[in-house]
Amino acid sequence: MKPADYPEDIRPYIVPKPEGNLNYRCLDCGENYGIEKLLYTCPKCGQVLLIYDQAFDRLKKIPAATWHRIFDYRKMLTLPALKGIYRYHEFIGPVIPLDAVIYLGEGHTPVVEANGFLQEKAGIRFYFKNDGQNPSASFKDRGMASALSYIHYLIRQGQISDVLAICASTGDTSAAAALYASYLNPRVKSAVLLPHGKVTPQQLSQPLGSGAAVFEIPGVFDDCMKVVENLSEQYNVALLNSKNAWRILGQESYSYEISQDFEYDLRDKVVVVPVGNAGNITAVMNGFLKFYEAGIIESLPKIIGVQSRHANPVYRYYRQADAERRKFVPVTVTPSVAQAAMIGNPVSMPRVIHLVEVYNRLAGKQRIWVVEVTEQAIMDWELIANKNGHIACTHGGESLAGLVAARQLGLVGDGEIGVIDSTAHTLKFSGFQQMYFEDQFPPDFDITPDPDLTNAPVLVRPKDLAKVPTPGNPLTGEDFKRFVQRISDEIAKILDLEKT
Fold this sequence. Notes:
By secondary structure, the chain is an alpha/beta fold. It folds into 3 domains: 219 residues, Rossmann fold, CATH 3.40.50.1100; 105 residues, Rossmann fold, CATH 3.40.50; 42 residues, no CATH class. Helix content is 38%, strand content 13%. It has a 6-stranded mixed sheet with strand order 4-5-13-10-11-12, with helices on both faces. Strands 8-7-6-9 form a 4-stranded parallel sheet. A 3-stranded antiparallel sheet has the order 2-1-3. The termini are far apart.
């Protein structure tokens, strides 16, 4: 649909022009800095930054009903720049011209309601938001679309050139960074650091396929992150981890999509996200806060952050009920199937602490909690979900386990509706499913397969069948008929089928 065909009162809003006044703001000392160059930490005190629009009040002047119509009509546009996360341009990157936006098909992932059996088993009505259906098969594409669009904008402005984009990763970040950087080839190259032996083969193949320089180093993600931070402080590189505040802006689109998917009515919604480096929960909170302050939504939904017992520093921090006595202490992680969440010292923890306080204060009561789950629960709930029509990754299993735990703790009440983040495609973590089915998990994972959830292929090869087809040697005539009949009989016997 073309803008000229839209109602006259909406036309001026449909294709946004660059506007706004964005600044980096330090969450510790409060200093503001211009966005003319890439900045990751406060030059004054070293704390992480968030990006704020100093002209945000202009968005409050547009009535909520008008905003709803703007976003709903933008759904019908064929303009690539507004088909993805920049449907919400005014809230993500209002200074970026649309012709600088990188769109590879990210965003607007489906929200799929769980079937009756699964909802009954979980004890609550809920939906999966399948972010594994992004281009690189994870939610990380949202942040990369934002970060690389901004880098593209700076290149076009002549402010930077010959960019090397670099990140530390447990798999998904590297895949997304390499994919989006490769789209800007040759002006942007990418390099990724991975913990040796801690990334699935499927995830490792992605940055290699996108042409990134891939480095595996000893240790875990936290060690990779320290090396990347050191490189970004000493060399001219563009850091693409969630320490980059532009990543957070892009990931806010998750909140905006949920708002739109549920007709902007979030009174009874509970949004559940896994907590890894804490960038995602930061973005989810900030996105809902922006829509709330602009009047687009009338209430702030509950948010449940989830951590595995094997990597739970944020859970431990909020386990202390007295805010005055809370002290963040990094933890030493142990192996987890939720690999992207296997982080003991989240970079975005200062953002989380700040935004949780703001969120609860504006809501007028506590609306954010962090729960802990076991590795066993993560795998079991992932497999149960996928046996009931979903494509949940291990982090989707972690989120579902977290929703169930929150329900049992009384944090989620009757009549509330869960919206669960399945952050990546299940095929990225198929190796863990295979380990579960074959009972091959090392002891430090603390996972024992439930026989009711395991599955394995069955070789059908009747002993009385003398001839079977092989590649290049098909059967014919009576031999082939006998083969088909005997195989059919054996399968029917195994499945206990009745003849018609």
